[in-house]
């Protein structure tokens, strides 16, 4: 499935892993977030994808905030 180029893009490098956060436009012209994890295993690069559609962003953000709050409490 081909999509238009990213409307917005940023990345996070974390050792052997790189995370890409791309806002793209779906076929219906609505934006969605595509999160890609790229992991280097020797000479091979493995990629995993997660798509978060516009209608799910609020719930996704709330769940992520809940997880981050929990992890923050665990580190104190």
Structure overview:
The protein has 76 residues and is α+β, with helices and mostly antiparallel strands. It has one domain (8-74): Nuclear Transport Factor 2, Chain: A (Roll), CATH 3.10.450.700. Helix content is 24%, strand content 49%. It is built from one helix and four strands. It has one helix at residues 57-74; strands spanning 8-14, 17-25, 31-41, 44-53. The chain has a four-stranded antiparallel β-sheet, with no helix packed on it. A hairpin with a 5-residue loop joins strand 2 and strand 3. The longest helix is centred in the C-terminal third of the chain and has 18 residues, at 57-74. The protein is flat.
Work out the helicity level: 10-25%
CATH topology, anyone?
Nuclear Transport Factor 2, Chain: A
Please count the beta strands (DSSP E, at least 2 residues each): 4
CATH top level? Answer: Alpha Beta
Family: Belongs to the PUR DNA-binding protein family.
Keywords: DNA-binding
Organism: Candidatus Doudnabacteria bacterium RIFCSPHIGHO2_01_FULL_41_86
GO molecular function: purine-rich negative regulatory element binding; RNA polymerase II transcription regulatory region sequence-specific DNA binding
């Amino acid at each position: 499935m081909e999509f238009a180029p990213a409307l917005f893009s940023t990345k996070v490098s974390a050792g052997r892993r790189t995370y890409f956060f791309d806002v793209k436009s779906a076929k219906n012209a609505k934006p969605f977030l595509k999160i890609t994890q790229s992991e280097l295993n020797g000479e091979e690069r493995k990629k995993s994808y997660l798509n978060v559609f516009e209608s799910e962003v609020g719930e996704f953000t709330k769940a992520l905030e809940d997880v981050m709050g929990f992890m923050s409490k665990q580190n104190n």
